[in-house]
Amino acid sequence: DVVSMGDGPELQDMIEELKPHGFTLLSTYRHMASGTIPIESLGEMCKCSTMLMAMPAMAIDNSLGGPMERRATGSVTSEGVLAMEVDKILENLGFNGSGVTVGVLSDSFNALGGAQDDIASGDLPPADRIKILNDSFIDGIDEGRAMMQIVHDVAPGADLAFHTAFSGIAGFANGIKKLAEAGCKVIVDDVFYFFEPAFQDGLIAQAVDDVTESGVTYFSSAGNSGRSSYESAFVDSGVAVDGPAGTVYRLHDWAYGSDSFPDVFQTVFLPNAEAVFLIFQWDEPFATAAPGSQGSSSDLGMFILDPILNQVVAIFDRINIGMDPIEIIGLNVAGYLQFIGRPNDLGYIFLIAIGLRSGKPPKRMKVTSLSYEVRFIAYPTNSGTGYGHSNARGTIAVGATNWESTPRFGLDPPVIRSYSSAFGTPILFDEKGKRLVKAEVRKQPKVTGPDGGINTFFPDPAFTRFQGTSASAPHVAAVAALLLSSDPSLGRNEIKDVLKKTAVGMSDPMIPFSEEQRFDFRTGNGFVNASAAFEELLSRQGKEGKTRNLRVVGSTKVLA
Length: 560
Hints:
By secondary structure, the chain is of the alpha+beta class. It has twelve helices and 28 strands. The chain starts with a strand and ends in a 17-residue tail after the last helix.
């Protein structure tokens, strides 16, 4: 992703200046262009006079489990249909999503092949009811098709559309817009970009708000990072250390507020994996969020140290002044464990230090893991990990509950997945980077849906379960399609309100459960119950004097 000085002729000038160096344009959105460029041309790219900054287009989907490859096992149906009591709608009311198109944004639809087999087996609707707008990500594992299978299980009458979200931030934002233009009244995604702002609405969040203001109901996976996040103000420990090239860092005191002496190290457990990422942000505006944004006025860095070998493992400190206030830390923990002769360990305990190189100390900073297995040990704050476009005003973020851990299968209240991300990160800046007078804390996730349902995409019979909020989000999005098929005049706010009001109460394990507790930042308003949602909708229609040709036996109590 490359960012120009503005979103007018400056953007086109930047693209033209990059083309001789092998830049291939994929998409543009406002003042950002997504594309590819040969590695050997990166040096020349940095000399581009019309470019503000460039960053790798790093994205992740929110699924868990083994590799997603297709296994032709015939037609299967996710148990999430029963967990949400969708079967009562399909059997007793007859609404199945017909007349509604659901758009899906993920990695790919048919990169591995096999879509025709899914259509033939009934796991997807006929080809003339599937619209593929962009399936250009050739390295995908077709998680988008897995999500579309779930939508088809819940709302078999709905048409489907797909656009890859793995074409850069600008490409993702454009995909949202194009699905809305293609007539999708419901859109769902399961993707998170590493460079999305935590304290401000970035380009993807802005795209979500644009389409929801035009009437689209937008769903996004909450994420699979649990509460693996640390959040606090920067507190000067009084300790300064020399950095590379003559720089000096003033180190953060992690022990501030405790009775102990200043401590410049946080102890953190990182799991045995080839790619473990930590995202470090602080409360300055993002230059990439809007043309003309001044970007960060402070520069910070992060250090990772081995406490046993007493050595610095990695330093992460790019130039932040005038750019984005973010550092992304990636570590091959599996490779490091191999290097030190401990390849079979579950993980390793490192030390983290944060240093301020220039500018004012941040009033709020945040270190977030993309893995719920990461643990901040010495000074945990157990802060929310959900942010970015899943925290946009127009988004309905969806947490995850195992379908077996729901009332339909004997567990009431339902139990949230340990990996389902918590929210609560405040918005501190408007889109243009102006600090808000009062922080805006948005109530996300809105609801929780089922995951772990059976799917035909896993090659090993022992791995037929689609887990993660990548699976829960399309379940709930499809319920919205059912509601719209019963009443096409429903607005997104009414759909959201009905889902929230009729959800089955549950709670974050860190918060004692009570029937009066209708919202928390982990489970939202509770687990979605489709039959209760229809009960509520039919009740509202009755009060408003609406009549409909419903296939109801006796009364709506048939849904109970």
